[in-house]
Amino acid sequence: MPTALPLDSTADLAAGASASTRHDTLEQSAAIPWYAAAMALGVTSIMIGLIWDIAWHRTIGRDTFWTPAHMAIYLGGVVSGCGGGWLAWMATFGRDARIRSTAVDFWGMRAPLGAWVTLWGSLAMLTSAPFDDWWHNAYGLDVKIVSPPHMVLAAGIFALTQGALLIALALQNRATERTRRARGLAYLYVGGLMVTTFGILTMEYTRPNSQHGTAFYVACALVFTPTLVALARASRVRWPATIAAGIYLFYFLSTMWILPLFEGQPLLGPIHNPIDYFAPHSFPVLLIVPALAIDLVMSFWQSRWGKARDHLLSLLLGVAFFGLLIAVHWPFSEFLISTGADNWFFGSDRSWSFWVRPGPWQHRFWGSMIDLQGILLALGIAVLGSRLGLRWGDWMSRVQR
Q1: What are the two backbone dihedrals, phi and then psi, of residue 104, each rounded to the nearest 5 degrees?
Q2: Quick check: 13 pLDDT over 50?
Q3: Which of 26, 88, 116, 130 is such that its CA lies 20 to 30 A from the CA of 145?
Q4: What is the pLDDT of residue 281?
Q5: 253: three-class secondary structure by DSSP
Q6: Cβ-proximal residues to 29 (8 Å cutoff; 6+ apart), any chain
Q7: What distance in Å separates the CA atoms of residue 245 and residue 227, rounded to the nearest whole number?
Q8: Same domain (yes/no): 302, 212
């Protein structure tokens, strides 16, 4: 005969089942929980702040630490950290069995993996703030981009983006049929912000004047190929790479068009280009074209062979990405450096900083053109990046907590 449970054990089981049921109902009624939305909102604030801060430096210089752009960056870190902190508190001290079951242990505390990564990133960002202010006061204003406080800040931003992505991934992978699309799109939105992060990091190599050289194609293959392929591999909705690349394009184009609408004047010398507006970045990389190819190739391949023969698939993805990138940007960059692109839409005449001395060199390509060795190098990196992206995407598709 079955053994009867003690009264208090029965009550505990009932309470746990009730809490789990309440959380399941909450997850079904709210496609995107507030903490996931807060993390995505925080990363959005950081991306806008970063692009704004770069324009601030191009236009004004670094007049003070307390600029609106800096505040947008650090506000994003605080908002994301609050979302991660709430999850850690509830998973450690709360009674919700469902939240506790999706958490991992760390030094006696419990939280989902994405929450731990987010908390570390928020702490790193906030630590870098006074360190960066002290650094500039001690060694001068904007001595160089690569400095210890900037590297701490960059690591924190990357961690916050990854933390938000892991939280969105876990929600997508646990989604019901009713919430599958909403959570899948939320995951791709954060993935698009990650692509935007890499776009900001590679700005130095992606100016139109550099798009006939090896560095441009190597940089794009190195960061964008594995990212787009991984996002596509782990996605549960259609056209994932295209959506992520579209989000990147949206943020870069919208800020490129909006920033020059505001007045700004240089406060540091020498001033060789006396501008009176916020100088934006140059026209972004048209990633949406190779991203569309990634989606088409992966859809065609998976409908016939599933996830088998990944070595052949990575070869095909690498060739498609690099081939379309060079096919699009080789002629497009020739237009971007011409006077025909000096208008509000392409903005080629507005993306120069105040310290740049205008001259004919602005309408020329810089450095030597890509040769056969450069083509093979960039193509090889694209193929290897595709293989890495497939493995990365396989891991992401299994994330549950």
Answers
A1: -120, 150
A2: no
A3: 116
A4: 93
A5: helix
A6: none
A7: 10
A8: yes
Asked if residue 9 belongs to a domain, the reply is: no
**261 and 136 housed in the same domain:** no
Smallest CA-to-CA distance from 69 within 273, 257, 250, 278 is with 278
For residues 72-81, one letter each, b for 16 or more C-beta atoms within 10 angstroms of the residue's C-beta and e for the rest, the string is bbbebbebbb
Q: CA–CA separation, 262 vs 277, rounded Å?
A: 6
- Nearest residue to 233 via CA among 400, 398, 395, 390: 390
pLDDT tens per residue across span 359-399: 999 999 998 899 999 999 999 999 999 999 999 999 998 87
Residues 261 and 360 in one domain: yes
Distances (CA, A) of 222 to 65, 227, 314, 383: 33, 9, 14, 10
Sign of CA dihedral 215, 287, 145, 354: positive
The structure tokens listed for 141 are 């204003």
- How far does CA 23 lie from the centroid of its chain? 30
Q: Record the tokens describing residue 249, joined without a space.
A: 């394009």
Is residue 342 within 8 A of residue 189, CB to CB? The reply is: no
Listed residue (216, 236, 164) closest to 193, CA to CA? 164
The amino acid sitting at 311 is H
Count the domains in the chain: 2
pLDDT tens-digit series, residues 168-220: 998 898 878 888 888 889 999 999 999 999 999 899 899 999 999 999 999 99
**Cα separation, 52 vs 72, whole angstroms:** 9
